[in-house]
Design a protein that fits this description.
mainly alpha; Arc Repressor Mutant, subunit A; Four Helix Bundle (Hemerythrin (Met), subunit A); 2 domains; two-stranded antiparallel sheet; globular; DNA binding
């Protein structure tokens, strides 16, 4: 015999661990509010003092925040991850937009392949519903709604990949480092011919995932990101040419032209 014994887990620790797991797997999203204390204690089948102890552990770890009038919420974990000064500097570099799309090509193609293999019925239903949102926004010619549905589709695919590291990395990159990409997405959706192509590409990715064709899903996602990358380059080039033409017309603002 030994003097070693396994100590049972405290109820507060179990509460904290359960909520941590929900945050890690993406079931609880950054900045999402939790149920009121009474309801949360009943749902977890613990006393309110035990619940408070568990929530305090998560607050101390920076996973939850309590705000007056808003109750307890998940911390803005993805946005906080991008506050590193080096990453903030990167976000200001124009070439980072192209680098980010290059990175997304690698990661999202793989995520689409994983989603084709791993997606549950719930995942597949969410992807199908998001594709319907894209179609509705496209038919109504509302670029802002279509851009939002586009982002929601990519998020649904990350979650359907059931790769926790991939999900959290891409969630973190939805902060300031990808703000320029988000702005560019909005610009792309103002161009009718581009919107048509993007809609068709999203449908191809979704169809491959829903039919569990991993190779087709990876290929469709790669084709989509390659197209977005080239379209973004074309937009940037056209914008630069326009600015140059305006400077030439005005002497760069320093000449004496009328």
């Amino acid at each position: 015999m030994t003097d070693f014994s396994i100590r049972p887990e405290r109820a507060a620790d179990a509460v904290a661990r359960h909520i941590e797991n929900l945050i890690l797997e993406g079931s609880l999203a950054p900045d999402e509010g939790l149920l009121p204390e009474r309801d949360l204690a009943a749902r977890l089948n613990v006393s309110r003092p035990t619940l408070r102890d568990g929530l305090k552990l998560l607050q101390d770890r920076g996973l939850l925040v309590g705000e007056k009038g808003r109750g307890m919420r998940v911390a803005a974990l993805g946005r906080a991850a991008i506050t590193d000064p080096l990453l903030a500097l990167l976000a200001e570099r124009p070439e980072v937009e192209d680098d980010c799309l290059d990175f997304r090509d690698v990661v999202e193609s793989h995520a689409a392949g994983l989603a084709a293999v791993r997606a549950t019925d719930l995942d597949r239903g969410r992807i199908g519903a998001t594709l319907d949102r894209i179609d509705a926004a496209h038919a109504a010619a509302i670029p802002e709604d279509e851009a939002e549905a586009d982002a929601a589709l990519h998020q649904a695919i990350y979650e359907a990949s059931h790769n926790l590291v991939l999900l959290q990395v891409m969630r973190a990159l939805s902060g300031s480092l990808r703000s320029n990409v988000a702005a560019n997405r909005a610009r792309l959706f103002t161009l009718p011919q581009v919107r048509d192509t993007l809609r068709d590409q999203h449908r191809a990715i979704g169809a491959a995932i829903l039919t569990r064709d991993a190779d087709a899903a990876r290929a469709a996602a790669h084709a989509h990101l390659a197209y977005v990358r080239q379209a973004a380059r074309d937009l940037a080039e056209a914008r630069a040419h326009g600015e140059t033409a305006r400077r030439r017309q005005s002497g760069g603002g320093l000449g004496q032209r009328g």
